[in-house]
Amino acid sequence: MTVIGSRGSDLALWQARHVRDLLAECAGLAADIRVIQTAGDRLQDAQLTTLEGKGFFTKEIEEALLGGEIDLAVHSHKDLPTQAPLGLVVAAVPQRGPVEECLVARPQAWDDAAPGVPLREGALVGTGSPRRASQLLALRSDLRTADLRGNVPTRVGKVAQGRYDAILLARAGLVRLGLEVAPLRLHVFDPDVFVPAPAQGALAVQLRAEESRRAGDEALAQAVARIHHLPSARAVAAERLLLAALEGGCNLPLGAHAVVLGDGIRLTATLGLPGGGVRRCVVEADDPASAARAARRALTA
Q1: Helix crossing, 217-225 with 10-27: angle to 10°?
Q2: How far from 294 is each of 78, 117, 183, 217, 265, CA to CA, in Å?
Q3: Which of 116, 235, 246, 277 has the most neighbouring CB atoms within 10 Å?
Q4: pLDDT the model gives residue 185
Q5: How far is CA 124 from CA 46, 105, 146, 220, in A?
Q6: How many domains does the chain have?
Q7: What is residue 50's predicted lDDT score, i.e. its pLDDT?
Q8: Residue 51 has what pLDDT?
Q9: Residue 43: what pLDDT?
Q10: Would residue 263 show up in a list of annotated catalytic residues for this protein?
């Protein structure tokens, strides 16, 4: 029986089950799921911006894959460092889910007439992401931000408890968990206005690379290849190549949203500036690497 490695949050388990079901449907492959706790799961109260290193949500799963304890790993693609560990490879990117950012807010803090962000003046918004904070404040400098950690239901619960006026989070989490936020209010941003993280809404299926393969890995790789979605992979590649070119990780205030246009790519990107504000660009190119290079030049000129 093939074993899939995953984090234990509700969202991570949805992702692992989704890949398990795709493999069963597309390749007739049966699999079990093994939960592996990562450093990011253990350090729920720590601000990610204060932690050193990369792979807070992936390292232990990757070690289990290299050690043969599991046969494949399923990750939120945006959690993966841009430099893959020696001996591992992303073998498939299934069709991408929603990419947008959402605002979930208390009704008392809502203001439909407010410009850019439908919140009353001075509202407190929870986010642990420098990218989200920089874009939010670029849209509305009167708003305040405070650090936020926890899984999706926990974050939404903190708004309901009145600990924040609103929070920012990925729409994919709400959709995948089927989470209704009412009576809280929900606003979905245009991804080219409030630009998501590189690879947001995408999953990564990780296998042992050829030099590290074990018995049965070749057949598994052939099965996994059947759930690969090329347009999603091309868009994600452009976004992550830009992230790599800027030598960034989860603390880099970079937004990147790529759209496949026939054989080409349109890439919208934002970069938070040290003194405040955001630099923005929109580029078009023939391939992901060229789009990433053009966006890097525009953002760092």
Answers
A1: 90
A2: 21, 30, 43, 37, 11
A3: 235
A4: 98
A5: 20, 10, 7, 48
A6: 2
A7: 44
A8: 46
A9: 63
A10: no
CATH number at residue 120: 3.40.190.10
Could you read off the pLDDT of 113-124 as tens digits, one per residue? 999 999 999 999
Task: Measure the CA–CA gap between 279 and 273, rounded to whole angstroms.
Answer: 7
Q: Assess whether 242 and 296 both reside in one domain.
A: yes
**Which residue among the candidates 32, 41, 45, 79 is catalytic per the annotation?**
79
Residues 5, 11: contact at Cβ < 8 Å? no
Which percentage of the chain shows pLDDT scores above 90? 86
Question: Do 14 and 125 fall into the same domain?
Answer: no
Q: Which residue has the tokens 């420098």?
A: 130
Supply the range of the domain harboring residue 38. 2-97+198-300
Q: Does residue 193 lie in a domain region?
A: no
Mean pLDDT of 223-241: 98
| pTM across the whole model | 0.93
Could you tell me how many residues make up the chain? 301
